[in-house]
Design goal:
By secondary structure, the protein is an alpha/beta fold. It is 57% helix and 11% strand. Strand 3 and strand 4 form a beta hairpin. It is flat, with a radius of gyration of 31 Å. The N and C termini lie far apart (69 Å).
């Protein structure tokens, strides 16, 4: 009884203190250190905790299982990891009394519970906010299915809904109706702004919403505007020619197994962790990242150009070894543009920045 009272969380603190003083000091220390565990055998203190026979209380076992399930779900790990022998061996070493739940338990018992709790928590946070900003974007998922995602800033951003549009066309009326549904759930009078891409149907939907809720200010996507500005900047002849040559050099190395392996080896020998990066069509910042990766790899690229087992095209080799390429760029870029106009145009098509 004394052992139960000391470990019982529902027992008043004053009573636990009095009972604790009545227990011999050595036994009392053992009880306080065990917390959620109950000793079922006189295990030797010289053995490591993994070899002790400590039985986990049912309530604490459920708590551990839920925390493990939450860690797996939130981190995106596979549910089947709990059935892998090495994970089972690891937890067996921690405490033989704790048996890992199987994947079915995680997917059936804990997945819905954790989802409901998270959804409830987000809903309470959003409803408690005084002013909110709704953001939405539509595209196709990996299965080419139409999707519209909704996020709310309060000002911290939270994900609130993913809408599978199925056979519905993304018309202004349809999008506006779905936006209003989201606003009604969380308090339409609290929304002060809407943000989406600059597509006609999205901006048209915002105007329809504004007719119903005049206080809402429709906004376009700043990132998309920056993409368009960057696209115009890249069309300037000098910038375009230089950028095309940079892309040509990076593609030449990355798309050749021999060149990429040799380049990686040279980087490792020189203590460099830099990797050559190609730009992404819809990410204007990736252009700057691509140029930076080339500049940071100057020493390794020049070593690659003079490597005895490597053969590069005359244009690529001369560019990498010329200080004009790294400092002024203009002379070599103009020559590349004049002699390889058709090739340049084909390369530039690969990196065009298309509006969403």
């Amino acid at each position: 009884m004394a052992k139960h009272l000391v470990n019982c969380v529902k027992c008043p603190i004053t009573l636990r203190s009095e009972v604790s003083e009545m227990i011999p000091s050595e036994q009392n220390t053992q009880l306080q250190n065990s917390n959620h565990y109950s000793d079922v055998s006189s295990a030797s203190t010289s053995l490591p905790p993994s070899n002790s026979s400590l039985k986990i209380c049912d309530d604490y076992k459920d708590s551990l299982e839920e925390k493990l399930a939450r860690a797996i779900i939130v981190s995106g790990a596979h549910f089947s990891m709990v059935e892998h022998p090495l994970w089972q061996q690891f937890f067996e070493e921690l405490n033989p009394s704790f048996k890992l739940p199987n994947r079915k338990t995680i997917s059936s018992k804990y997945l819905n519970k954790i989802y409901d709790e998270t959804s409830k928590n987000i809903t309470e946070q959003v409803k408690a906010a005084s002013y909110m900003h709704l953001q939405c974007d539509g595209w196709s998922n990996v299965r080419s299915e139409g999707v519209i995602n909704f996020l709310i800033s309060k000002p911290e951003m939270v994900f609130v809904r993913s809408l599978a549009t199925e056979d519905n066309k993304h018309t202004s009326a349809y999008i506006a109706d779905e936006i209003i549904k989201v606003m009604n759930v969380y308090g339409e009078h609290k929304f002060i702004a809407l943000t989406g891409d600059n597509a006609g149907n999205m901006q048209g939907a915002f105007k329809e919403v504004q007719k119903v809720y005049p206080q809402v200010v429709p906004l376009g996507c700043v990132a998309h505007c920056l993409n368009l500005l960057s696209e115009d900047f890249l069309k300037c002849p000098t910038v375009k020619n230089y950028f095309l040559l940079v892309i040509d050099i990076i593609k030449t190395i990355k798309y050749s197994k021999v060149l990429s392996w040799t380049f990686a080896k040279i980087c490792k020998e020189k203590g460099s962790e830099e990797q050559l990066k190609l730009p992404v069509k819809t990410r204007w910042g990736s252009c700057a990242t691509s140029l930076k990766s080339l500049v940071n790899s100057k020493v390794s690229l020049q070593a690659l150009a003079v490597h005895e087992k490597i053969t590069l095209s005359p244009t690529t080799k001369s560019s990498l070894l010329s200080e004009d390429f790294w400092k002024t760029y203009l002379q070599h870029l103009q020559q590349h543009s004049n002699s390889n106009a058709d090739t340049d145009n084909a390369l530039f098509k690969d990196i065009e920045f298309n509006p969403p």
